[in-house]
């Protein structure tokens, strides 16, 4: 093959390795930077830190405002994940297995929230929720985040269903299984990795969402990204770096779980 690694030659392999290292460093530098600042002893976001401390993490856990924002983000993200995967699975089944006209147009419509500017979507959702009295409510947050998360589930599950061998379902039906038993015991287990991936995407999209949340937030109901944004407008406390590091840690934890889940699935095959 033209791009066979072993045939590239030492200079080209070293060049590619150097470019890859620079790209990784460029992507990881902000994460490492904010993580180091969260352990700095200075009351300002100064780099390099003059010393090291866990004071900002203690202040974060002692502040009920941060804990309440984390709880709101977690509740919203969990509900959005459940709804996004459920609705995404049903929608993907209809789009892939349905025979009705306009499926391609409908599929494009479902991914519209991914291509629209988020601020435009946020203004539209805010106007709608304001009209029906859902601004600043838990339901309003769930609706806003679900609109953004659902396309990720639909795309993931549509791709999985397009590569799925439906002969397995026909074989189960021939063996006497009911349509519900086929879905429960054949289709869902075969798609478990894609369902899990859709869940991870949906949770992280909701967990990190800030633009829609800013429009929806009230003093009594704000998510963690909104709390961070509000705190940044007041001062540059290292507590913000500590909270950001916790957000990064949770995201990395989900990515690790997804990688382990995929590894077990690969071994199972």
From TrEMBL:
One record GO biological process: transmembrane transport
Any one GO CC term of the record: plasma membrane
Pfam families: BPD_transp_1 (PF00528)
Record-stated family: Belongs to the binding-protein-dependent transport system permease family.
CDD domains: TM_PBP2
Main subcellular location: membrane
Transmembrane segments: 12-39, 76-96, 108-128, 134-158, 193-216, 236-261
Key words of the record: Cell inner membrane, Cell membrane, Membrane, Plasmid, Transmembrane, Transmembrane helix, Transport
Record membrane topology: Multi-pass membrane protein
InterPro entries the UniProt entry points to: MetI-like, MetI-like_sf
Source lineage: Bacteria, Pseudomonadati, Pseudomonadota, Betaproteobacteria, Burkholderiales
Subcellular location: Cell inner membrane; Cell membrane
Record-annotated ABC transmembrane type-1 domain positions: 70-258
Protein name as catalogued: ABC transporter permease
